[in-house]
Amino acid sequence: MAVDYTTRDGVAVLTLNNPPVNGLGLSTRAGIVEGIERAQNDPAVKAIVLTGAGKAFSGGADITEFNTPKATQEPTLPTVIEAVEGSAKPVVAAIHSVAMGGGLELALGAHYRVAAAGAQIALPEVKLGILPGAGGTQRLPRAIGLEASLNMIVSGAPVLSEKLADSGLFDEVVANPAELADTALAFARKVGAQAGAHPKVRDRKIEHPNAAGFIQFARNTVVAIAKHFPAPHKCIDAIEAGVNDGFDKGLAFERECFTALVQTPESRALRHAFFGERAASKIPDVPSDTPVRDITQVAVIGAGTMGGGIAMNFINAGIPVTLLETKQEALERGLATIRKNYEASVKKGKLKPEVMEQRLALLSPTLSYDELKQADLIVEAVFEELGVKEQVFRRLDEVAKPGAILASNTSTLDVDRIAAFTKRPQDVVGMHFFSPANVMKLLEVVRGKETAKDVLATVMKLAKKIKKTAVVSGVCDGFIGNRMIEQYIRQALFMLEEGALPAQVDRAIEKFGFAMGPFRMSDLAGNDIGWAIRKRRYLEHPEMHYSKIADRLCEMGRFGQKTGGGWYDYKAGDRTAYPSSVVNDMIGEYSKETNAQRRKISDEEIVERLVFALVNEGAKILEEGIASKASDIDMVYLTGYGFPLHRGGPMLYADTVGLYNVERAIRRYAARPNGDAWQLAPSIAKLAAEGRGFNDRA
Ligand code: 3H9
């Protein structure tokens, strides 16, 4: 049973017992109703305490049941809450650790609520693309008022129980969580002895001097921030319905919105990201109980932009870092940049000056490899060239203590070759941070042929500590993210040859939802970086067909924002990309020289060619086992490459379009000019034939 029933001195205690977070799946829901009924029928019971075992009161509805028959099978959550609220004997919710979503809605159905300090209270449904569907939009405003509830519901952000102590939500907040059970029992005994009806949140009034004005203000704010998501708007609509039409009509409207939202592609995408993030930390052949190595001291080699950003991650998490450079001047420059970054946060009011100083105090600059002897993890962020990496890793092999993890921040080089520079390849791993490393969420953890399982487990755990989304990639050129982006860029360049211009390509893909199109992105990152990679490609893979149009741009010295011009023109001190007639002429000229027939390319074709290029390469990456699941690829693209969150990542997007349609489009493009870049991944054809997708669970 997912709910335990015991009695103590005239109080029935119903304990939700559905690990890990007491999700309100079917058996838990049925258990609550059964417990409430049992308590009604026991004359010795005067009151009921509803509580949760383990690490939560309740994390809410069981998200894995959404859009399955179980989700709508009675007792549904609204039925459960009705049973709780309708209980003739008073129900006291005893809340610890987490009361979220349906969990908080359940507690709002109780007659009284006692909470332990430190509990996270939230209606986070909006983060899953839905709205609270079991009365949250109706009861929370009646419990804590219109403004506070609307903020909680529209943001989905958790609030600590003690901050809500005087809000009207709780009857008591217990400072010491260990005393929650006894306090709730005593409270239940007290109210159980009282005659008469017990209070219901639904009967309270929503008092506000200008509800219509506040709701309009909220609407204006949400329009600006939630462009691609319907849920925040629906949250406001449902709250407004409750304010204007009363509880019952508001409840019915909320239910209607919930049923519609849970089926939207946006909700599917957000749920996919929720589970994808958690799934990414699980490596199929590395059990979750694999022992990890202690990481209490980190060293970073290289104090450039990347090394400095990497170091900041660790000191932000309270881990001391030794920062090594070869020259005093470079070291000082690196330290100054780190300080400048923190000072910018202090100026914006995001960081207290004393916290900045505490963090900087964790940083020990050095010019000597001998200072790295104590480090448990050493991350190399030096120049991206195998010869340079070789020098560093040979030296590390001499100085690092046994068992230290040696990580390379390489973005393209072969981690197995780097590992072979040492006599301890089992301790070598790739930690590919994305720039700016102190900001970007993504960390690609590159698993070499010999990387030990406990090294992987350690790095994944550490990634959580430094608040990164870590995704494991096998060794291949570009790993998951950059290998895929190369195909995307390749298509973008072919389309310039065939008739498009940079601004049109960027506009089309930005309208699709990308944060930045390929050409604006390339101008920001520096066009010379791609040029260097392509030069290597021409040597290593002469058989591969690339457009040379970007090389032409680089030959003109147009490396991007840093040189005042790239695919676009830039004005000093202004990052706005202005279409460039010089570049557009060059593109037209190039098409002529190569006898390419320029034609009008539709925005739809631009989006398909860019996104399906990612999908096709992603499928190959899965076939080769470079990524172990499709959701890992999606997490890389959502957290590191600006792929639109409301589309859930390239692989989920492909599922949404249908792999049958993806296959047809790829075959169509393969038959056109530059079609040799499209080698259909066999798994797309196979899954399409089986009527399946990459992520059938989502
Ligand atoms: C809702 O309530 C709708 C209602 O309004 C209306 C209904 C009609 N369901 O995050 P963790 C799993 S919508 C299923 O690593 P933490 C999670 O996948 C719901 N599974 O732990 C993971 O599984 P695994 C509104 C869930 O301690 C494991 O639990 N509620 C759910 O860092 C541990 O999770 C939310 O949106 C769930 N609801 O954080 C809350 N929740 O081990 C979403 C968790 O196999 N949950 N799991 O990977 C959270 O924010 C965090 O999980 C929580 C714990 C703060 C609870």
Description:
- It is found in: Peroxisome.
- Pathway: Lipid metabolism; fatty acid beta-oxidation.
- There is one protein chain.
- With about 700 residues, the protein is α/β, with parallel strands linked by helices.
- The protein folds into 3 domains: about 5-260, 2-enoyl-CoA Hydratase, Chain A, domain 1 (Alpha-Beta Complex); about 300-475, Rossmann fold (3-Layer(aba) Sandwich); about 480-695, N-(1-d-carboxylethyl)-l-norvaline Dehydrogenase, domain 2, CATH 1.10.1040.
- Helix content is about 50%, strand content about 10%.
- It is built from 28 helices and 19 strands.
- It has an 8-stranded mixed β-sheet with strand order 12-11-10-13-14-15-16-17, sandwiched between helices. Strands 1-2-3-4-6-9 form a 6-stranded mixed β-sheet, sandwiched between helices.
- Strand 18 and strand 19 (about 580) form a beta hairpin.
- Helix 19 (about 500-510) packs across helix 24.
- The longest helix has 21 residues, at about 605-625.
- It is globular and about 90 Å long.
- The mean pLDDT is about 95.
- (S)-3-Hydroxyhexanoyl-CoA (3H9) binds near residues 20, 59 and 132.
Task: Say what the CATH topology of the largest domain is.
Answer: 2-enoyl-CoA Hydratase, Chain A, domain 1
CATH homologous superfamily placement of the largest domain: 2-enoyl-CoA Hydratase, Chain A, domain 1
Q: How far from one another are the termini? A: 27 Å
Structural class: alpha/beta
The biggest sheet amounts to: 8 strands, mixed
Dominant shape: globular
Question: Which stretches of 5+ consecutive residues score pLDDT under 50?
Answer: none
Mean pLDDT: 96
Keywords: Fatty acid metabolism, Isomerase, Lipid degradation, Lipid metabolism, Lyase, Multifunctional enzyme, NAD, Oxidoreductase, Peroxisome
Domain 3-hydroxyacyl-CoA dehydrogenase C-terminal: 478-570, 606-692
Pfam family, one: 3HCDH_N
Pathway: Lipid metabolism; fatty acid beta-oxidation
